Amino acid sequence: MSSFRKFLLRRFLTFIPTIFGVVFITYLIAYAIPADPVRAWAGGEKAKPEVIEKVKQYYYFDRPWYEQFYYFLVRLFEGTLISPRTGNNVFADVAARFSVTFQLTLFSIFFSVVIGVPLGLVAAYKRDTKIDTAVRIFALIGVSMPAFLLAYLFILLFFVQFRAITLAGVPTSKVTITGVPLIDALITGDFENLAQIVARYWLPGFVLGFAGAGIIARFVRNSTVEALGADFVEYLHAKGLPVGWVRRHVFKNSLVPIVTIIGLEFGASLSGAPITETIFGLPGLGYYAVQSIYYLDFPAIIATTFVFAIIYVVTNFVVDVLYAFIDPRVRY
């Protein structure tokens, strides 16, 4: 078996305990909440005793906690776990909201990369100058700025003052191909719908990507500065290669940590942005998770956590695989 196949097998074997551990810890936290979820699911304070008993039996709340978890887990992997709040299969609810979060993630990563990478490169090549200091201050502000504060400031500016954004509704595809309206609009050339999608998503995407831009700028700067101090840079200069060629090799050698942080940002955004989605009224995975917690919807909480865990481990796996293509020295 090749070393790369061994690597794939090792990573796959780590997926199972990681995902199981996340779901198990989530269940224990939910179980420890001092509340009566069964009564809440059955209708609240006015719920009839027979209804409460049926709900309790259906979700095995009349059994010990470990048996409850077992049946939750079985239904989760069978795809038959039902949300008591919506009455739908939890994976159907997640699938219906995934495209909203995915589009938000695309806008977020776009702004993070377009802003963060150039600023990081400029700061690295202008090290210890006023430009470098300004970029580092920007990065600090990006990391420190609360998302809700930035969101409300921009809503006040672009919605209340200039009416330059849309905060109502979510644009859908006229022709469904991929299930993601943004991609469908690009494929079909529906620029009218594309304009509506951009108008709806660009500001929440910018708010979500602002912190990511600061993080990426810092990583790009530090990684590039480290690469600039390598011996091969002096060798390339000694050979008389043009500055552009040298910078190209420097950027390529600094890509591994940059790809890592971009991958982590993508995974974090795709796992839902509850604050951003709630403020901008986007019915994505983050908003769904918040509402599930609010209504003590344990099945939905476990399902969203399960999906988030899968997104994270898959994202990390893809980043690890990309290492071998970016840096030939990486071997598995």
Characteristic terms for this protein:
332 residues, mainly alpha, 0% strand, 76% helix, MetI-like fold
**Oligomer status:** single chain
The computed structural class is: mainly alpha
Helix % is over 70%
Per the CATH scheme, the topology name of the largest domain is MetI-like fold
Number of E strands: 0
**CATH architecture annotation name of the largest domain:** Orthogonal Bundle
Count every helix, treating DSSP H or I runs of 4 or more residues as helices: 15
* CATH C-level category of the largest domain: Mainly Alpha
Mean pLDDT: 88
CATH homologous superfamily grouping of the largest domain: MetI-like
CA-to-CA gap between the ends? 12 Å
- The helix/strand order is HHHHHHHHHHHHHHH
Strand content: under 5%
Label the overall shape.
Answer: globular
Biggest β-sheet strands, sense, barrel: none
Provide the number of structural domains.
Answer: 2
Low-confidence stretches: none
Cα Rg: 24 Å
Question: What features would you describe in this structure?
Answer:
This protein is an all-alpha fold and 332 residues long. It folds into 2 domains: 76 residues, no CATH class; 234 residues, MetI-like (MetI-like fold), CATH 1.10.3720.10. It has 15 helices and no strands. The chain starts with a helix and ends in a 6-residue tail after the last helix. The relative contact order is 0.14.
